[in-house]
Amino acid sequence: MNNLLIVGQYVPTNSIVHRMDPRVKMLIIFFYVIFIFFANNVISYGLFTLFALGSTILTKVPRRFIAKGLTPVWFLIVFTFILHLFVTREGFVLFHVFGLPIYSGALEQGAVISLRFFLLILLTSLLTLTTTPIEITDAVESLLGPLRRFKFPVHELALMMSISLRFIPTLLQETEKISNAQASRGVDFRTGPFRERVRAVIPLLVPLFVSAFKRAEELAMAMEARGYRGGEGRTKLRELRVVKRDVAALVCFIVITAAALITRDYS
Amino acid sequence: MQSRSKVLFLVEVAIFAALAVVLDLFSFKAWAQGGSISLQMVPIFLMAFRWGWKGGLLTGLVVGLLQLVTGPYIIHVVQGFLDYPAAFTLVGLAAVTSGLAQKAAKQNNRFKLALLLIVGTLIGSLGRFAAHFVGGMVFFGSAAAPGQSVWIYSLIYNGSYLLPSFIASIAVIIILVFAQPKLILPKH
Questions:
Q1: Closest by Cβ to B77, choosing from A33, A116, A224
Q2: What is the mean pLDDT of residues B53-72?
Q3: Is A231 within a domain?
């Protein structure tokens, strides 16, 4: 039942990574995405690879879920590699494929860029695999907190995100229900030319939108009846707290990144 | 009265952002053979016409952030920002014709209304396209070999799904608003 209420890729395994503060996870990933572009030799890439693979193992997420997240980009990773093989002309000729020369530089560059691609997608997908969308929302609210000074509606934004996330499964169910109801009246969403199909979604969308407006009105009324009046002084059900394991993860990341920055080629 | 409509506004934006995500999931299922034509932008357009700038941009931003928290593909900070928060926020630019469209809806001037809806949707779609286009250049740019024209990849890739989605969205918006002009008129 609980699973029904979670959209996205979250896989609950209650690992140490799952229990980490989402803010710390996001900060680490943010800086990883930036600093990986500084890697330029075997050691620095090795260190970043080590960090990503180590984190992946610690999440205890079954391999098939991780593979699933990577499916859409596998093609791109392989394609990038092959493209580099045939286009880049650096280094010396290693061998010929179908009469085309393959350079050593091409092999190297193709491998490096595909690896970077893979690591980036892997690490960013770890966040959504180990953190519920609502936790990420809480983290975003907390991290963007300073923007409040510039009148940026941080609290309102987080509130809207929470409401959206709560209503996605409900609305999904409703869409299904209405589409079944209309299908039973003979509306055909799946076949026919483009024009017919666009026309077929109207009997689906009108009741869906009308009921969404009704829902919004009811919810707004319920919120006001309970005295909601903006973010000032509002307390939270889920409090975020940085504990030892978060500090440990942060230190680990800083050490690895520093090591990679020291060992990279500066010539 | 003032705060009443503010809470209602927040909640409507939230629920329509959720609806955008739902329609994206649903369109994919219903039209699997027809390519990835998505009606995701329709709720954002609707909020843009109904609530103006604030409604359009905010609904877009929430949709972009929802995508970001449920499983994005990020390979560069700039690309991540452009492809998610920026792209969908820009869909809200459709609000540029909001005031005039509401007036036309009240006067029941159908020709003018259709024209304004088309212009608004077009501007919103172009905004989104611009963000994805540049984001795509960063994305493919970090993959392509030097000297390759990444903008062509980006143009073809992004155009191939945005153009059909734009056409479908425009058709749906016009039929929808003609059937229920109340949808773009706010309650207060």
A1: A33
A2: 90
A3: no
